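pasting for the record
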Amino acid sequence: MDPLDAATWPVRTERLTIRRARPEDAETTWRWRRLPEVGEWITRAPTDFDVYRAQFVDPERLAMQLVIERDGEPIGDLMVKAEDGWTQAEVAEQGRGVQAELGWTLDPAHHGRGYATEAIRAVIDVCFTQLGLRRVHAGCFAANEPSWRVMERLGMRREEFSRKTGLHRSGEWMDGMNYALLAEEWNG
């Protein structure tokens, strides 16, 4: 069973619907993921649609992908990657699947309206209330200010500012930032 199967989808907010991604969403999400201003910050930025589609429909990746819709139109996507927490060997079983890494992209045509914050807030709530996770975390290049500002608006705590730890596709080693939130800190 995929970890996200334990939640009830779609999730609705005041303005948005968040649903599980489907293979046919590859073409729609490609509209913004191919843009240089989006590709600058994401882990994979293929320049060819066929390569992108193959990555998107990979069952392991598709299992952690969500789509953000506004009035039935996809405007962004989210990743919820369930993970094991670090444990000592004797308690390893208790640390399985207890946290998630979050990631997101939003069509630049929809920036500046609070959609990313609204969608991520709803997904964090699902992580804590429906999936029973104890922790969520997300990271970005420090230069990606809009991303870390969203994390701060959501009440996530900056846990790390690392100097030149991430190699950007430009060839530059860039500073990184990591944020997290525990279930007991979540106010919904």
